[in-house]
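TEACHING EXERCISE
Course module: macromolecular assemblies
Task: Read the component lines below, then compare them to the predicted structure of the full complex.
Student: A.B.
Group: 4
Components provided:
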Amino acid sequence: ALTRVQIPVEGMTCAACQVRVQRALTRVPGVADASVNLLAHQASVRFDASRVRPEELVAAIQRTGYDARLEP
Ligand code: 9UX
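Instructor-supplied answer key:
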């Protein structure tokens, strides 16, 4: 079974930013798919919780240079 998480992402200003974040997330082992909404500043990620933790998804976003954190 897959889990979905919404992650707020700050700093994306264009479609290329959106693609960078989306690609970074999709490359994390355990991620099934990821879609990033530029205008909503949100990433939606479906992942296998037995393989990857949400904190690792946040870290992958941060490595692309954008700011992300888990919602409280
Ligand atoms: Mo273009 Mo988005 O440099 O940062 S990729 S604005």
